[in-house]
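Morning - magnesium ion inputs below, output right after.
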Amino acid sequence: MVVLNPRMAPDSPVKELPKVKPMDQKRLAALGILTVRDLLLHLPFGWDRFGDPKQVSELQDGTLATIVGTIVRIAPRISKYKRLKLTQAALADDADDELNLVWFNMPWVAGQLHRGDQVAVAGMVKATRFGHFEMRNPHYELLDGRDGAGPKYIGGLMPKYHLVKGLTSKKLSGWVDAALPLADRLEDELPQDVRERHGLLPLSEAVRLGHKPETEDDWSEARRRMGFAELFELQAVFALMRASLAAEPAVPIPYRQDVIDAFKRGLGFELTTAQRRSMWEIFKDIAKPTPMNRLLNGDVGSGKTAVAAAGAAMAHAAGLQSVVMAPTEILARQHLHKFRAYLEQSFPGLTVELLVSSQSAAERRRVRAAAASGHCALVVGTHALIEEDVEFADLGLAVVDEQHRFGTRQRELLRAKGRGRPHFLAMPATPIPRTLALARYGEMSVSVIDELPPGRTPVETEVVAPDERDRAYELVRTQVREGRQAFVICPLIEESEKVVARSATAEFERLSKDVFPDLKMALIHGRLKEKDEVMARFVAGEIQVLVATAVVEVGVDVPNATVMMVEGADRFGLAQLHQFRGRVGRGAAESYCLLLADDPSEASVRRLELVTSIRDGFKLALEDMRLRGMGELLGARQHGMSDEAMQALERPALIDEIRAEVDRVRATDPGFDGHPLLKAAIIRRLEQTSIS
Ligand code: ADP
Ligand code: MG
C-alpha cells in the first residue's frame, strides 16, 4: 500500500504522486493532466478482458489471455526487416509449457525483465507454427516474489486509457491507484437537485467506479455522470459568455432592401433557400446594438462565402468595414477573388484588399493604410491580419473562415480590431451536427445551410483495397488523359511538420519516378515556401497531379480536378475525408474520390465505407461524432471534449435538458456565486481548456 503524503490534495500537481518522473509529468500534461484531480477525472475509455490467469496448454488462437510464469529466455534483437528493435522472450508456466513473447520497438523491456523473473503477461494469443503460441507487445508485470501473489495491475479487466507516447495504461493505472484515496475529497460541482433529477452518481463515487468498476453498469454510469458534468460546466461557461457579450455595445448595421437587391443581381446565381434564411438571421442580428456572435454551419460547398459577402455588403452600406480571416494563404487568395466577384461589380465604391505575409512590405503598407483610412471596405487575409499592426477606421463585421484552425486568442485579437465589438461570424470547415454545435459552441447562435446549390454531380466514392492500388493509378491516368487533374493526399502523420514534409516528399518522388513518370506532377506541403505558386500552377492546369499533405483540406476550388486519391484514409476523421471529397466535383464533369487504407482491417474498411454511402455532410459528421464517442479513435479529443461527453451527446435531447438545467440555476443565481463549487469548476475549465 502506497502511503500518500498527507499534504496531498486534489489540486496537488501530479509530480507529487509516487513514481511520476519529470518526463511522465510532461507526458501527462500533453493529455491535459496537470493535477491529481485531472488524473482522477481521466477515466478509461474501455477495457480489455484478459480474464484470470490460464495455463499455456489452455490457450486459444485469437483470444485475450493472462499467463503467470517464469522468464526462461530474454534477449534484445534487431530485425533485418525494417530494422525494428525487438525484444524476444519465452515464459514457462508451472507445467513448463512455454509461451513466446515479442515486443516491437520497446527496447527497455529487455532491461526490465530478466531470466528467472516471475511475471504476468496479458495480451492477444497468436498461434505460430509447430503448435506454439505467441503474444506480441503483451502487457507485463513483474510479480514481487511473494508466493502465490497474482498480478496487481494486469490481467482480468485491464483499463484502456487515452495515452500519449511513452505512457502505458499500466503506468496510468498505478498512479490512479495511488491517487484514488483522494477521490473522497473531490467536491461535487453538480448541484444536488440536478444530480437527483438525472439520476447521476456523486463525483467521488463516479471516479472510484469509473476506474475500478465491478460491473459493466458501474463503468457506464460513471461515464454518464462525467459526461453530463462536463457538458453542464461547458453550458454554464457559455451562458456567462453570452451574458457578457449581450452587455457590450456594438454599432448596429441597419437592414437595407436596396443593398440586398443589388447584391443578388450581381451574384450570377440564385441563392438557395437555406442561404437566404441564414442571410436573414445575420441581418436581424447585426441590426441590433449588441454584437452578433454567430456560427454559419453548412456543408462543404454549400456557399457560406456568399452569405458572408452579403453581410459585408450590408456593413459597407452602413459605412462600416469588414474583415475575413482564413487559415492559409491559398484560401485567403481564393476568398479575395470570390469576394471581389460577388461584390465589386454591384457596389462600385466597395474595394476588397488582401493581406498575407508573403506580400512585399510596400504592398502590405499600402493595404494597412487603406484599412486604417477607411478606404477599403473589406480586407481578406491570414494570421497576418492579427500579427501585423493592422488597424481599421471603423470595423463593423469580423468573419473567421475554417474557424477550428484558430484559437480563442486569435479570434479575440481579430475582434479587438473594432472600436467597439464588431459583429462576429464564424464558418466551420465541415458541418457540425446540431447537438455538437450546441455542446461545443454554445456561446454562439447558429445558422444552418442544409442544402447544396443545385446542379452538383455527386462524387463517385470508393474504398480501394491495397492490392488494387494500380487500378486507382489507372483511373488517375485516364482522367489526366482526358485533360483533368488529380490530387493525391498523403497520410496524416502525427509528428512534426518536418516529418510530414519528408514523407510527402518521398511519396512524391516515388510517384513521379515509378508510377507517373510521364505526367506533370508537383508537391505541396505546409513547409513549402512556394505553396501559392504551386497552387496557382495547379489552378492554371499546368500541373496534372498534385501530391499534397492535408493543406489542401482547406477549401481550395479547382473545377478541373476530378480525382481525389487519399492515402492512409483510415487515419483521417470522416468529416475530414468528406472535406477532401468536396475539393473535387466542383465542375460539371464526373469526379472520383478514392480512399486507400493502410489498415485493411474490417472495422477500418467499414468506417471508410460510411463515406461512400453517406453524401450528406451533416449525417457523416453525426456518424463521426458517434465513433469518436466510442473513444478508441485517434484524435478523439479533437473536438475539445472527452469521449464521455461525446457519448452522452448521442442522446440528442440531453443537450437541451442540460441547457434547461443551467437556465434553472441561473434564474436565481445568474453569476453562479451561490454555487461556489460549480463556479470553481467553471473557472478551472476556462483556465485549462481554451474554449475555442
Ligand atoms: P463553402 O460553404 O464550402 O465555403 P463556397 O462558398 O466556397 O462553399 O461555395 C462553393 C461554390 O459554390 C463557389 O464556387 C460558389 O460561388 C458557388 N455557389 C455558392 N452559392 C451558390 C448558389 N446558390 N448557386 C450556385 N452556386 C453557388
Ligand atoms: Mg469555404
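Note: The first strand starts at residue 46 and ends at 51.

O.
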